[in-house]
């Protein structure tokens, strides 16, 4: 058995490659082409930055989340609109914005941030202004430099 060890390894390796090529990959292609991962939503994704009422509201909710994470003694100010906003589809947004903070010693610092936020109620937009209907998935830029 010891003298056939390398030959058995090569045969097992070839069998593994063939089973993956003939069985596993065709199954994976069928699953990827199916409707399993399809999300039917009125909100379409965009590769280019956009400005819509929903991105404006997402920007306001990201600003609200940033204010809640900063110290109460810190004065924070935001521009009127985001630098860039992208719709990722299915009411998921990526917001790139900036804000200025002023502390007790009147030092003003400007920072950029990126916020990924999702509207949880989908096509039902009645509660779109309520912050509880949104989820901040990720927020970066609040770290001290």
Task: Give a concise summary.
The chain has 145 residues and is an alpha+beta fold. Helices cover 32% and strands 26% of the residues. It is built from 2 helices and 5 strands, in the order H-H-E-E-E-E-E.
Describe the model.
With 145 residues, this protein is α+β, with helices and mostly antiparallel strands. 32% of the residues lie in helices and 26% in strands. It folds into 2 domains: 2-34; 53-140, Nuclear Transport Factor 2, Chain: A. Strands 1, 2, 3, 4 and 5 form a 5-stranded antiparallel sheet that branches. The chain is elongated and about 80 Å long.
Query: What's the order of the H and E elements?
Result: HHEEEEE
Low-confidence segments: none
| Percent helix | 25-40%
- The shape is elongated
**CATH architectural designation of the largest domain:** Roll
Radius of gyration: 25 Å
Strand coverage percent: 25-35%
CATH topology assignment of the largest domain: Nuclear Transport Factor 2, Chain: A
Distance between the termini: 63 Å
CATH class call of the largest domain:
Alpha Beta
State mean pLDDT (0 to 100 scale): 89
* Main beta sheet: 5 strands, antiparallel
- In total, the number of strands is 5
Q: From the helix content, strand content and strand pairing, which structural class follows?
A: alpha+beta
Number of structurally distinct domains: 2
What labels describe this entry?
145 residues; Nuclear Transport Factor 2, Chain: A; alpha+beta; 2 domains; 2 helices; 5 strands
């Amino acid at each position: 058995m010891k003298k056939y060890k390398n030959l058995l390894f090569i045969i097992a390796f070839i069998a593994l490659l063939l089973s993956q090529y003939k069985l596993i990959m065709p199954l994976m292609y069928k699953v990827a082409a199916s409707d399993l991962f399809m999300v039917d939503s009125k909100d379409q994704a965009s590769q280019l930055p956009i400005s819509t009422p929903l991105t404006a509201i997402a920007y306001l909710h990201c600003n609200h989340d940033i204010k809640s994470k900063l110290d109460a003694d810190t004065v924070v100010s935001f521009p009127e609109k985001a630098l860039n906003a992208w719709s990722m589809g299915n009411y998921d947004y990526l917001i790139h914005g900036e804000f200025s903070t002023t502390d007790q010693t009147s030092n003003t610092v400007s920072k950029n941030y990126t916020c990924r936020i999702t509207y949880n109620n989908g096509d039902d937009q009645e509660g779109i202004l309520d912050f509880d209907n949104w989820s901040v998935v990720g927020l970066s830029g609040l770290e001290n430099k």
